[in-house]
Amino acid sequence: MAQAFDAQAQQAVLASRAQQALALAKRLGADAAEVGASVDQGVEISVRLGEVETVELSRDQGIAITVYVGQRKGSASSTDAGDDSIQATVEKALAIARYTGEDPASGLADAELMASEIPDLEVHYPWALSTEQAVELALECERAGREVEGITQSDGASLSTGEGVRVYANSHGFLGTQKGSHHGLSCMLIAEDDNGMQRDFAYTAERDPKALRAPADVGREAAQRTLRRLGARRPATGSFPVLFDPSLASGLVGHLMGALAGGALYRQASFLCDRLNTPLFPEWFSLEERPMEPGATASSPFDADGVQTRNNRFIAEGKIASYMLSAYSARRLSLPTTGNAGGARNLRISAPLQTPEALLKKMDCGVWVTELMGQGVNGVTGDYSRGATGFWVENGKVQYPIEEFTIAGNLEQMFANLAGIGDDVDTRGSIHTGSWLINAMTVAGN
Length: 446
Prior knowledge:
Residues 125-230 form the Metalloprotease TldD/E central domain. This is PmbA protein. Belongs to the peptidase U62 family. Residues 33-97 form the Metalloprotease TldD/E N-terminal domain. The structure is a single chain. With 446 residues, this protein is an alpha+beta fold. It folds into three domains: 7-227, PmbA/TldD superfamily (PmbA/TldD fold, 2-Layer Sandwich), CATH 3.30.2290; 238-251 and 351-444, no CATH class; 273-349, no CATH class. Helices cover 24% and strands 37% of the residues. It has nine helices and 18 strands. It has helices spanning 7-27, 83-99, 131-146, 215-227, 246-260, 262-266, 327-332, 356-363, 411-416, and strands spanning 32-48, 51-69, 72-78, 151-170, 175-193, 196-206, 238-244, 286-289, 312-316, 319-320, 347-350, 353-354, 366-373, 383-394, 397-410, 418-422, 431-432, 436-444. The strands form three sheets. It has a six-stranded antiparallel beta sheet with strand order 3-2-1-4-5-6. Strands 7-13-14-15-18 form a five-stranded mixed β-barrel. The chain starts with 6 loop residues before the first helix and ends with a strand.
């Protein structure tokens, strides 16, 4: 297995390097500077058909330095945090800054906004796992899936585990550090019938390895998801209600946040420009982030500007309540930062929840989508078009699997036509949501 990772020692080293870079930048003529540094170590093991395929050990580190000369900005980075590399990186950033144009919005976030509350958010859980133990867990996962009747082949199972440290410091005197870990196990299986082969997968992912699902459960779920896709047909073409599986509904939230992001707004590249306090969803829907939630996937007490993070409500009773802004994008829009440099953290939905069965009954006749393909989303217009697979629903019941079709609509209309959210909440990522039922979308099949 990889060499033991001493997170405490790494924090001290990175903090020292960051302060060294800041002092050097000031000495060489920068008016202000900020430094981000990180080191990560991980292991990934993959098995297939009962044999070990790969054992990958990784160790990555980097340091990024941004300097400001007046309102000119220069940035440079390196994967080497040694003395000579820091010197060269600072000099390169300063050289870039001297040749860039003045930008009235550039500069550090205001000093009074720097994070002062940096609690332990319980996001670091090392996993003392030997290579042999990791291999056995992956093999157990695949074995359980392959033992399910009807599974004919395997694309393998993978176990990954890793931990890391990040540091952010700037010339306001702010220095913040955070440790973190990530662990996961996945399996992909294949089944075949007269209509051809189908494949699907299942996975579990957590900060704390003790919270991972049992390997055998993951393998059996992968098998069940694969087998249910056998006998797929193409659906009819028309306008139908569409139910998005929780893993796909989180993607819709992601598209929403992309449209609310300050970078898209000040470039006029969002369909939600100038829409604060206007309706977008039904009144029963609200969305907020909780960046200080202990143990959550994206928890952090400070953003990429060093600004104290806080709960932000982006959608309140259906209306757009806030944009998602960094210090820079906030200045461009003449608004205060929302502490979202680096994105939103731990998005949570407030809405009445229904069982998936109730949503299918409400749908009556339509499409339940379980996989999407392609990148057909236009952030400027909100137009949405994706290849899909899933299941055909009639009389509120799943009838048969479907594939090789496209769903299309417009995000603004889709959000307005949100008819219900399921209680089958997927908690494996930063966005927690259940299934989404959209009243009507265009389905292009036969």
